[in-house]
Amino acid sequence: MSQKNTVYKPKDIEERYYKIWEERGYFEIDGNKQIQKKGQNFCIMMPPPNVTGSLHIGHALTFTLQDIMTRYKRMDGFKTLWQPGTDHAGIATQNVVEKQLLAQGIKKEELGREKFLEKVWQWKAYSGGTIVNQMRKLGVSPAWSRERFTMDEGLKHSVKKAFIKLYDEGLIVRGNYMVNWCTHDGALSDIEVEYETHKGKLYHLRYPIENSDDCLIVATTRPETYFGDTAVMVHPNDDRYTHLIGKNAILPLIGRKIEIITDAHVDMSFGTGCVKVTPAHDINDYEVGKRHDLEFITIFDQNGILNEHCGDFAGLERLEAREDIVTKLQEAGFVAKIEDYENQVGHCYRCKNIVEPYISKQWFVKKEIASGTIEKVNAHLAEFYPAHWINSFNAWMKDLRDWCISRQLWWGHQIPVFYCDDCGAQWASEEDTQEFCPTCKSKAVHQDPDVLDTWFSSGLWPFSTLGWGNGEALKDEKWFENDLKDFYPNTLLITGFDILFFWVARMMFQGEHEFKKLPFKDIYLHALVKDEHGQKMSKSKGNVIDPLDTINDYSADTLRFTLAVLAVQGRDIKLSGEKLEQMRNFTNKLFNASKYLLMNETNFEDLANIQIKTDLGRYMYSRLKLATKEVREQIDSYRFNDGATTLYRFLWGEFCDWGIELSKADRLSIKELGSIFKEAMKLLHPFMPFISEFLYQELSDTKLEDVTSIMVMRYPSDIEQDIEIEKIFELVIESIVSIRRAKATIEMPMQKIESCFIKLNETINLQRAVPFIKLLGKSGAVSFVNEKVDNAIRDVSDHLEVFIPLSGVDLTPIIERLTAQKIKLEKEILKLDNMLSNERFVANAPLQVVQTNQKALADAQAKMAKIDEELGSLR
Questions:
Q1: Integer distance in angstroms from the first to the last C-alpha of the chain?
Q2: Mean pLDDT of the 762-768 span
Q3: Own/partner long-range contacts of 27-33 (Cβ < 8 Å, ≥24 apart)
């Protein structure tokens, strides 16, 4: 090995190798054309990150797992498409640009829609490439030449086509619905509302009864909403209020009359049994209002400003007005009491504003669109990994409501519906502008000002990126004629469980509705990446792990392999510096193994070009075949942690710990081991692309700049083991371990002994393996016996016994040490036994204390048995 490669420096190769891979087109669908198998296609979609975002550790996990699958399938001869792209992220991106403008003292309304959108496109151009460049640092291999953006020309056509098709089918409708309303970001879907425990107040208000001195007491956490009350309801079976049914209550301060009605919705046991009804500002009251044909009074505008229905408080912001309203009610004697109260309050998932139920004219996708998806998922035409996610999917789909898809933003896909100001006609069009009304020919037409929910366009991602609905835009550049035929349905989706309903379900019902096929065959939902203590990462806690910093400190391969080895299906990932350090040590171990091999040979042939002749070569090759079989099965079943663990076991635990050490007794095997190690680098490549490429080229005495990359070579597939040679070396290794253990008993772990004897439990000839046992066991003569050897230390293992003669060994200090340990243990056992025999102690002590002492007693007894065994062998 040349001097410059005596230390592995990942920073020296990662950027250089990645540039070569990308420039040669290896990531593209024909990058592996030389090894492609006819009719074998693989497609996976990258969850498009926010275009102006930055790479976080959750992205790193998703993209690592996707890249493992993509590199594996590419090397296995599949025509492979990993479709990359970014999302326009309506709310998030508009918020960023709005804040930038506000910092300059400019409101977006002052610019107007067109000028504001120019600013957003400028920001997208400036920062839009950040995250995709950061992803390259991770070593991922999507087909970058096909990178899409959810608002590129082709996808704009696709979104319009999808909207209009559903509109014409009656599955997209517009109407006055109660929605989740953020006074900053507008309408939100149900899953965009995050609920938090709120410590507030419960206000008990007095509503006078018309023509009576009596009053009803109602309770509310939002006293400002009482201006919108249009009824008070009681349970029809509540005898306390039967005489009041049909009469009127009078709203405090404003004097408006509201009817007292009955509804089985009321819980008679809660509070006074009287409930104020605010149909325009409460989801439950909305349904009551429809049942009883009540008036719907909206009391604030889209910005949360109270209106003329609120008397003297008109013009105030609804939350800021609360204290003033309560003070005025108290002064007038309308507040019975105020209590501390804890409840769940919805907040906007983006800006954290308190969300209000609000009646607004919005666009909705009817829930019926999902019926085919529900049926096909439960027919197992798509499988979830882990399997239990089908239960969550079904639970959500069972309670599915119409999906609000209109958003009060400027950045996004503007809803392709136009209105005539003269005749009131409404129509959808794929054209960007409309000159006149198709009904009355008036030119007084305008487009709906709202934009579509970001998830509407990303819900089309599995097929819009393949050309569906793109027209001719970007054809033969970003998509090709046969893409839908070759890659829809997609093979697999990998993403976080937290967007199962935001994104996955919506892709499923949009894809199924259009093609009558679910968009994926398999859906792998990974858990969250947390800190080493299982805490969610947050800036406020100071426990955020930045993937780019981690790559800089440890290497891309170390981060990837650590995430993979921790990615147990269904379990959160606890990422720690200790685990990263362990995997960095693994890369160093691999590098040192290659250094050892190259100290003995200048280069190594590919495994396919040589014949394995030595016993050790046969053994390590057989173990590679087992690892190949297991890793293939594990990747195919998305058990990434098992695949990584198998590679770690084979490469460190078998090849480095035993293969390298055993080769010191058989130098002829080293040439073969080098070839086997090269093949093992192919097996490792999907998990650790950089070091596997580097070591493969080093062992071949080649440079990537001059030869084909490992990433487009065939993935190992030979899995037929050599059971005979494996049995021999299992006994060789067991003999060595047993000899070392016996030597440790007589305190000679590092010293060479004159001789040892091995008694095998079965008849097998190990004579040819004696050189391995002698060298690694540090023993002179090694003999095989059929009987127990007297005056010898004995070690018993599963398949054999080892005897080391004790002649010339002074056992006195060893026996004294063991005897002292035995006396100390006897006292400990007696103390613990007495404690646990005390019924009073067992009955009164905490269960954890009792269990701790029981474990301590069992451990002490096991140690005692071991000491007795050792003393017995020495006497």
A1: 54
A2: 91
A3: 27/82, 27/141, 27/142, 27/143, 27/144, 28/143, 28/145, 28/146, 29/79, 29/80, 29/81, 29/143, 30/79, 31/74, 31/80, 31/712, 32/74, 32/75, 32/77, 32/78, 32/79, 32/80, 32/712
Enter the tokens of residue 503.
Answer: 């994104």
Q: What CA–CA distance (Å, rounded) separates 721 from 618?
A: 9
Give CA–CA dist 59/50, Å, rounded.
Answer: 11
617 touches 676 (CB < 8 A): yes
The Cα-based distances of 287 to 226, 345, 356, 380 in angstroms read 17, 20, 16, 36
Res 490 pLDDT > 90: yes
Beta strands in 293-450 (DSSP E): 335-348, 356-365, 383-385, 403-404, 406-407, 417-420, 426-428, 445-447
In the chain, the percentage of residues whose pLDDT exceeds 90 is 78
Give 343: exposed, middle or buried? Use CB within 10 Å, 0-12, 13-18, 19+: exposed
Q: Is pLDDT larger for residue 870 or for residue 309?
A: 309
Quick one: pLDDT at residue 875?
A: 65
12, 690 contact by CB (below 8 A) = no
Cα–Cα separations (whole angstroms), residue 365 to 404, 451, 501: 7, 14, 15
Nearest to 268 by CA among 301, 241, 304: 241
Each residue's pLDDT tens digit, 43-64:
999 999 999 889 999 999 999 9
